Amino acid sequence: MPKAQAIIDCDVHNTYRSQTELYPYLAEPWLTRLKEKGFGYPLETFYSNVHAKRLDAKPENGPAGSDYGLMKTQLLDKLPIDYVVLTGEGISGLSYMPDAEYPAALASAYNQYLVEEWLSKDERFLGSLHLAIQHPEAAAAEIYRWGSHPKVVQVSIPAATTLPLAHPFYRPILRAAAEMDLVVALHFRQPGPSAPDMTPVGMPFNYLDYHTLVSLPYQAQLVMLVSSGVFEELPNLKVMMMEGGFIWAIHLMWRFDKDYKALHRLAPALRKLPSEYILQHFMFGVQPIYEPREASKLQDVIEAGGLQHNLVFGSDYPHWDADEPDFIRRYLPTAWDSGIFYDNAASWFKSFKHPA
Amino acid sequence: MKTRHYFGALDALQEGQFSIRELGNRSVGATLHQGKPVVMLNFCPHAGAPICRGKITASQYTDAEYQLHLDAEHPVLRCPWHGWEFSLESGGLHFESRLRLAFLEYELDGTDLFVWI
Question: What radius of gyration do chain A's Cα atoms show?
Answer without folding.
Answer: 19
